[in-house]
Amino acid sequence: MRTYGKWWEMVPSTSPEIMSQTIPDIISHDFIILKYEELVIPEEITIFETYNPGAVIKIWAYTIVKQWICLWEQPSVRCPKFPRMFSPKLKKINVPTNTIRIEFNHSNLDYFTEIDAVLLTGIKCNPAHLPKFFSLAIKSKERRGPISRKLESVQFKPVAANVDVIIDFLVNDFESFIIESGMVDDEDSAQFTLKDLPSEILFKICSYLDLQSLFQLSETCVKLHEVAVDPLLYTEINLRPYWNLVNSDLLETLGRRCKFLRKLDLSWCGCCTSLTSHDMIKFISKCGSNLTHIKLNSLSILNAPCIDIIGKVCQSLTGEYQISHAFSSEMIYHINL
Question: F-box domain spans which residues (predicted)?
Fold first, then answer.
């Protein structure tokens, strides 16, 4: 692994997270992706941790229907400094996989962790049965209506704790708060709803929401849609927590909202998803002229044309520019900056 402990988060050179309200409760610092020869329905995963165990916090499986599924997650814990065979209880799935992703949090480590092997155990999949899994996935999508499919495409998982509090207040306590504050008369209280608030107050509420909540709010009614798609709410975009959901459709939607985008984090995106380098080039061309900060760490789709368009379009980059651990050898390229 690349680091350990919390010291690297405390040094003066550490930059704050972009769009901090999107940070999930269980934070991942690093990951590895393992691919096996055989397709199996996973029943058990055993991780042979040789030195400084306890950093594993999430295990994902990439299924044959091109979907990432989280099999297990847990916050980082401090463990005795002895080798162990770590085999957490996995979420049961009925779809074959041969690709596993393991995420790490190094906060409780006193030194680098080390893994010798990862054993994937499961029911071997007969190739003759593969069409059945694809047909079931197609039928499952067909049973959902257009609104359900739209919401599925923006069903981001991470939700910050403060967002939970805000949503709970708006759903359960907002009406009584309005009445008690004397903002409306009792006879009018039954007609007063969230939509009756001034747009400025709605905008302020939306500024505390993460991308999941903003997208869902924009699907509720016309007035909340107008507020939730305001470009001033999208001056900072952090897509790293949603790496498994980012695709061309999402970038196209964000492209219509990010007219004043200044900070962007695309780290970890594009891994076994439909996102392509062409999608990134299109997005940067449309929204990158005002960027001052950009993070592209471990971005699997990054290549020479992507770097070239960043050099041409992002003329305002005066802050942070991270591009570490990129996968593509095509990045070796001369760029005229």
Answer: 191-237
Clarify whether residues 171 and 190 are in a common domain.
Answer: yes
Same domain, 325 and 200: yes
Number of helices and strands in the chain (H, E): 12, 10
- For every one of its 337 residues, what pLDDT tens digit does the chain have, with 9 covering 90 and above? 678 888 888 888 777 888 888 888 889 999 999 999 999 999 999 999 999 999 999 999 999 888 999 999 999 889 998 999 999 999 999 899 999 999 999 999 999 999 999 999 999 987 776 676 666 555 555 555 554 455 455 544 444 455 566 666 666 666 666 666 665 555 555 566 777 788 899 999 999 999 989 998 898 888 889 999 999 999 999 999 999 999 999 999 999 999 999 999 999 998 887 789 999 999 999 999 999 999 999 998 999 999 999 999 999 888 778 887 665 545 445 444 4
Q: What residues are paired with 124 via a beta bridge?
A: 40
C-alpha distances (whole Å) from 309 to each of 280, 284, 306 are 10, 7, 5
337 in a domain, yes or no? no
